[in-house]
Amino acid sequence: MVEATSTRSGRVIEIEQMTKTYSIGDIKVPALRGVSFSIDAGEYVAIMGPSGSGKSTLMNLIGCLDKPTTGLYRLDGVDVSALDDADLAKIRLQKLGFIFQGFNLLARTSAVRNVALPLFYAGDPAREAKATEVLKQVGLGDRLEHKPQELSGGQQQRVAIARALVNNPAVLLADEPTGNLDSTTAEEIMGLFGRLNDGGRTIIMVTHDDDIARHAKRIIKLRDGLVVEDTAR
To answer: What pTM does this model have?
Structure first.
């Protein structure tokens, strides 16, 4: 049973006319052309679109890994549009949990210490106790000292999910979270996401897979840097 929950309520993401333009020499390449939407706490949103649609750029901006060229972005009540790199790093640590396709675990480090890593950077003295509790919540209480090579792909992704949850972030961001998993394991991970969302967790997921996107309760589709569809399920 997954017990990790979010007690936040209200609007967690507000994006207004956000653009992102990259410069390649003298050439300007618009990746986002004026995107606007909001996400309330507890929503489960899939972002979809073909290659070049802007979905990866949008995910990087939502994750405070990049800055918009113009427009407004509020995350959990904080205007992050014009923050400097140091403040963006703090926001990422305090308000966001990241789950990647490639797991991104430290190979020579145990599951519990991989999960505790964000709390280490935050200087939390109770980091291993908290990491242990979250690993139990995702069904890995008997794998605390196992290293990544001693775990299956699905178990490694559960470690990555626990690491993303350990700071109790406002938003869980998942970038193609089942891309390296077989179909059966992918369904298990999506079931875990569903239980996390049922517990109140806000989830935003980028995926190209229609079957995976159907697990979300809202789908935002991008094309040519614009939102072309925003549908609640």
So the answer is: 0.91
